[in-house]
């Protein structure tokens, strides 16, 4: 079973104090759900860090009460903290560009992800999130006083497929990091490295 050794290697890399800039992350074994690029130290191929579901889940799943556009009341989402993902890739920057399957882009200050439990949601009410319901990944903010603003709503990206880490003072050039072909599927297989 080649998946188990890859997951063990990934977990060892995450917890190793010897992890250094330029270390390669294990290659994803399943369909790619998320690509991270930009000002990062660790990648899967020297340029981009690609993540499948099991790699994301191995970072630790938390539960978050949030309201998506499909909900009138808060529901339970499960996912990975954005700050944890940024630590895994060794992000250096002040902002991330969160890019959706439809090329919608939102800038999220990294300081915001460090101060709030901003989550990359993998499941809604314990079930995978289909593309038709704005999945397979979403960026969601916790329900807290002061976080129900239009700016936060604009940063709550649905159908998340890419993250570009950069210095917020540098304008984003609008180029996607991963080419897509064909219609999006729920398993993220529309992403191609």
TrEMBL record:
<dbReference type="InterPro" id="IPR000572">
    <property type="entry name" value="OxRdtase_Mopterin-bd_dom"/>
</dbReference>
<dbReference type="Pfam" id="PF00174">
    <property type="entry name" value="Oxidored_molyb"/>
</dbReference>
<dbReference type="InterPro" id="IPR036374">
    <property type="entry name" value="OxRdtase_Mopterin-bd_sf"/>
</dbReference>
<protein>
    <submittedName>
        <fullName>Oxidoreductase</fullName>
    </submittedName>
</protein>
<feature type="domain" description="Oxidoreductase molybdopterin-binding">
    <location>
        <begin position="75"/>
        <end position="167"/>
    </location>
</feature>
<feature type="signal peptide">
    <location>
        <begin position="1"/>
        <end position="21"/>
    </location>
</feature>
<keyword id="KW-0732">Signal</keyword>
């Amino acid at each position: 079973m080649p998946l188990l050794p890859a997951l063990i290697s990934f977990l060892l890399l995450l917890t190793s104090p010897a992890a250094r800039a330029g270390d390669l992350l294990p290659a994803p074994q399943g369909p790619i759900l998320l690509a991270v690029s930009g000002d990062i130290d660790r990648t899967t191929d020297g340029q981009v860090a690609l993540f499948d579901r099991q790699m994301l889940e191995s970072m630790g799943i938390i539960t978050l009460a949030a309201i998506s556009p499909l909900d009138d009341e808060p529901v339970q989402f499960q996912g990975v903290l954005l700050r944890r993902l940024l630590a895994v890739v060794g992000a250096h920057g002040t902002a991330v560009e969160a890019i959706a399957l439809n090329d919608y882009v939102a800038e999220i200050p990294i300081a915001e992800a460090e101060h709030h439990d901003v989550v990359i949601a993998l499941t809604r009410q314990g079930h995978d999130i289909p593309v038709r319901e704005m999945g397979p990944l979403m960026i969601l903010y916790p329900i807290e006083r002061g976080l129900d603003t239009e700016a936060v709503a604009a940063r709550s990206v649905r159908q998340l497929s890419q993250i570009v880490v950069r210095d917020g003072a540098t304008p984003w050039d609008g180029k996607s990091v991963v080419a897509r072909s064909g219609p999006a599927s729920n398993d993220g297989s529309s992403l191609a490295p």
